[in-house]
Amino acid sequence: MTITEQAYQAELAALRAEYAADLPGRLAEINTLWHALEAGDWSDSVLHMLHLQIHRLAGAGTTFGYAGMSKTARGLEKHLLSWQRNTSRPGALAWQAARLQLAKLAEEANGAPQIETDPAPSSLLAPMESRLIYLVEDDQALAEDFRLQLGRFGYGVRVFPNTEGVEAAVAEQRPDAMVLDVVLPEGDLAGTDLLRDLRSRLDLSEVPVIFVSARDDFDARLAAIRAGADAYYHKPVDPMFLLDRLEHLTRREADAPFRILIVDDEAALAEHYALVLRQAGMRATALTQPRQVLEWLAGNDPELLLTDLYMPECSGMELARLVRQDDRYLTLPIVFLSTEQALEQQLKAMSLGGDDFLGKPIEDRHLVTAVTIRARRARELRALMSQDSLTGLLTHARFKERLDAELARGQRNGSAVTLALLDIDHFKTVNDEHGHLAGDRVLKTLANLLRRRIRRSDVVARYGGEEFAVIFNDCDERDALHMLGTIREDFSAIQHGAKEGAFQVTFSGGIAAAHAGSSVDSLIERADQNLYRAKDSGRNRVLVSSD
């Protein structure tokens, strides 16, 4: 959850002050290790600890205002890496160059930090919002039906009975999409003429356009294509067909915040990265001990793991191998954050389980962009493997994994987790009387309605057949009941088209809140019991345990 700009800058300042206060102690430890080398102690442990300390300064210095120190540390780190990889001791020239760099390092660390105050990085995720549709239709009854039906899915529909006023409205506020009839009071091709004129005078490149018309001839369709139409439907058209196309044409990023795990033994730097990503709308967690990672992963469901390459207890490469040993995390993207520039080492790290490298130091805005790009790609790939092909919702198996993760998070944070199971009433009758294609459209309609109406932090899945499941995070039974109650009422009012005429469908639901120690199976069982009570008591209702 983002915080105010003032609070964000205050937290950054506190992290910088903490880092500056720790610097003298870091330099003292580096000098102690360096004197051990000078005294002839060239053991692996001394070289390893000295490299880690220099590596930390190289990776974090710039972030906290010590760019010169960071640059010098990277040069000194190269010497140390070559000494570690080469069994022979350095020559006099290499030793003298390293001593000069060490002296310069101390000088730059003692200087005042140079901070450029940047505004908090904005989230790259577009917020969920109502989508505005301009409907140009002279059939008032049809226009009102479209307005009501689409309104239940969060669309705001502004109706124009003719071409008058459309251009002024578009110039004042661009809609998210336009739906036009071809035949209007002004002429048999007035709709296509209107669109062509609008495109010649206004920028409509980002506005999808759908034509709905009683005309189904070649000339009308050709005119629509030439005017720049994205879709064409012949009347009468089921509003749910129109909804599917609008959902596709106007779809925006409205996903839950990306879930990021950061592992870096440099505590201040790890918290800095986490703060920046949280301010950009992500859910970021920072860990400083690699041994905490497996336990944390067991109770969470991250979409990206950022880890430092060089850490004292367990290197980033070793951590990647540990994570990859668990089949649950084979697809979890692992990105190394490091000052390591040697291509050979980068390739070795990736061969052991990593997916990519980000170089330290990294600017805040670049960190947000890089993480967003990689997390979004990972989410898209995961979606291909975990989404139901008909509805686009999570599959049964993937849903149970998410429920397990959300329960663990809720128990760890003390936040409420509530589960709802929904079942479409008399669905077999829908298939028998109207056909399986009509049944599929009903399933897609409910899926779209749930996806559009639940919060971004919640999770919706196709549980199986005509059953759906919703995980409400930070939400108790009564609040979940209120949300589902309005969705149930809107769904029951939707007109579904069929050859035999329009029909309506309802659903029943059962809700159960997680208790201390609730398991996935026990929570599902309690929600399922409430669902069956709702069906037994008359259907078209949602019940909680206290009902």
Task: Summarize the helices and strands and which ones pair or pack.
Layout: H1 5-38, H2 44-60, H3 67-85, H4 92-109, E1 131-136, H5 140-151, E2 155-160, H6 166-172, E3 177-180, H7 190-201, E4 209-213, H8 218-227, E5 231-234, H9 239-249, E6 259-263, H10 267-279, E7 283-287, H11 293-298, E8 304-308, H12 316-324, E9 334-338, H13 343-351, E10 356-359, H14 364-386, H15 396-413, E11 417-424, H16 427-434, H17 436-453, E12 459-464, E13 467-473, H18 477-493, E14 507-513, H19 520-536, E15 542-543
Helix pairs in contact: 1-2, 1-10, 2-3, 3-4, 7-8, 9-17, 16-17
Keywords:
547 residues, Four Helix Bundle (Hemerythrin (Met), subunit A), Rossmann fold, 4 domains, five-stranded parallel sheet, 15 strands, 51% helix
What profile does the largest beta sheet have? 5 strands, parallel
Walk across the major sheet and give the strand order.
Answer: 2-1-3-4-5
User: In total, how many beta strands?
Assistant: 15
Instruction: Return the CATH architecture of the largest domain.
Output: 2-Layer Sandwich
Separate helix tally? 19
**Alpha-beta content class:** alpha/beta
Find the CATH topology of the largest domain: Alpha-Beta Plaits
Given the C-alpha coordinates, what overall shape results? elongated
The CATH C-level class name of the largest domain: Alpha Beta
CATH superfamily of the largest domain: Reverse transcriptase/Diguanylate cyclase domain
The whole-angstrom Rg is 30 Å
Number of domains: 4
- Average pLDDT number: 85
- What's the assembly state of these chains? single chain
Percent in strands: 5-15%
Ranges with pLDDT <50 over ≥5 residues?
Answer: 123-128
| Amount of helix | 40-55%
Give the N-terminus to C-terminus distance in angstroms: 34 Å
